Prior knowledge:
The complex is a heterodimer.
Chain A: E1 2-5, H1 20-24, E2 29-30, E3 39-40, E4 43-44, E5 56-57, H2 72-76, E6 89-92, E7 98-100, E8 105-106, E9 123-125, H3 126-133, E10 154-161, H4 177-191, E11 196-201, H5 211-220, E12 224-227, E13 232-235, E14 242-248, E15 253-259, E16 261-266, E17 268-269, H6 274-281, E18 308-310, H7 320-340, E19 350-352, H8 362-366, E20 372-373, E21 381-382, H9 392-396, E22 402-404, H10 409-419, E23 428-433, H11 437-446, E24 455-460, H12 468-476, E25 481-486, H13 498-514, E26 522-526, H14 532-548, H15 551-560, H16 567-576
Parallel strand pairs in A: 7-18, 9-16, 10-11, 10-16, 11-12, 23-24, 23-25, 25-26
Antiparallel strand pairs in A: 1-6, 2-3, 4-5, 8-17, 13-14, 14-15, 19-22, 20-21
Chain B: E1 3-10, E2 16-22, E3 39-42, H1 55-58
Amino acid sequence: MKIRKKARYVDLSLCNACGECANVCPVTKPDEYQMGLSSRRAIYIPFPQAVPCSYILNMDDCLGNNPIACGKCIEVCEKKAINYDDRDEIVTREVGSIIVAIGLDVYDPTEMDEYGYTRFDNVITSMEFERLICAGGPTAGHFVRPSDHQRPKRIGFIQCVGSRNPKIGRPYCSNICCMNTIKDTLLLADHYPDVENVVFYQDIRAFGKSFEDMFQRSKEAGTRYIRGLPGDVEEDPETGNLTVTVENTTGGQLERHELDMLVLSVGVQPPKDLAKISGLLTLSKTSDGFFMESHPKLKPVDAPTRGVHFAGFCEAPKDIKDSVCQAGAAASRAGALLNAGQIQIEAITSRIDIEACMKCGLCAKVCPYGAIVWEKGQPAVVIEAACAGCGACGATCQFGAITMRHFTDDQLLAQVRAVLADDPQDKVFVFACNWCSYAGGDMAGISRIRYPSTNRVVRTMCSARVSEEMVLEAFRCGAPVVLVSGCHYADCHYINANRQTVKRMQRLWNTLEKAGVRPERLQLEWISAAEGQKFAKVMEQMEQLRKTVTAKEIEHAKQALKPKPKKAARAREEAAVPS
Amino acid sequence: MATTTETFRCMMCGHEYTEPVEKGEDKERSCPKCRSNSIRHLKGRPPSNEPRPSRSETKE
């Protein structure tokens, strides 16, 4: 693993954090830690509790080091700790496990103009509120509003700003905002008993330990909770006061509230570097944009890529307690892996026949784990410890160079032929993935859900293992209809291998159409392990479809989909025929 | 992100529809009419307005 260690321009071993350098620095920049509510210098300590407690010089803000444009900090530093020639360093480390804990980004409410965040000074976010009320904040804990630096007496909180809102692409609950607001109202009630708090909400989600108690205490302390999100915020230009219009959905009335300050309880979102880390470690994301765990119940801290674990917000919105729990679990998982000394891997991995490999590199391209190494002109090589056994590579290789152990082409084709050996016209042929669709069938069975008994299921580890040849072979063997089924996109147990299934299905539909075979005879469905009902419904639909397929159509497909002999084989055949 | 309008056909019910598609998007598709996942992407083809032959018509 290569890590870029950014240049600090200050020697950690020499700096004693006296602060003389910052005192003479002429540059003033908004302080990111204080949410821009105060300023910092180009040389600064990022936040008071920073470890190590040492200054850092932001060269992007500095007037210049080459040539030295100012140099005042160097002049006053008695310890000679400042080094303008410092450079970024690339550190290489060999690691056995990686814990991804890249945190979160806070939602920027600029786009939700109805709340006036960019127009009115006294509309602030919950993060800005946090800085304003903090003893280490820009006002040393003296709570004042930005427009006139007076203490506000009536404060409103709007919940779910950037959460549970599909219109702005954030349908998920941010998990922490309700309790954060409740905590803020208690803090205000404690510090300033004369302050009136109003919370506008759509639901209060106080489901953790002692959370309901906190909510009740907040109400007892005088905070009003109004069910309904404001539609409009107006400002009185003279006083800076705000008027909020809201429909109180409990009583069904339109209400107007005059407030001194409005706090937008902003949601959270995946960090902006998530895509970069995702690419580096071949991790997949859920539809919300957070990292997807290997299994939501059984492996909640493991990434699908072995040896990678998650802690905190990057996996899903969660509060401090849950983050700490997950971090502990991730550390334990990593520790178990490192202490094992050796690891056991599943036997279902792919193997490449170097003789047969045509060095095209397609297998490496489709591997969701990056477990196949390929260089132009060289045969591909499988890293077996990284291979999870989805079989996408085996189904993609056109030259039969890849063998998926326990799910070889020969084994699967033999199953296809065996299933369709007798009365194929009466059967619905199904390829089902091990983790979801096959389990969906089990669920239908154990739930005693009735469905036609005509289906015959061949199990593969992933739907991506089903090659075009296998589907065509089923039609050649007389299958009236074929279903390929797999996990839903978000549930794919092999990161995103089932996207290869979709691409293959598109090609197959084109192939069938070109051959004059009704492409509808081939179907694709995503069925999860819990969707027994869906499994039964799909089987019913497939049975109805099967009944529409005529014997003539089956026969035509058998002939039209016959494999064409390769050029060389054709030439040999022609040469063998006596003229 | 570049968005184009693409045509899709449900292979289960035959419903054809268009949908804006973002380049590189990763989205599970299902038929807006019957919820089937058998969605064929008709690349470069406009949606057909003509009624498709029913299955009984193709039965021969």
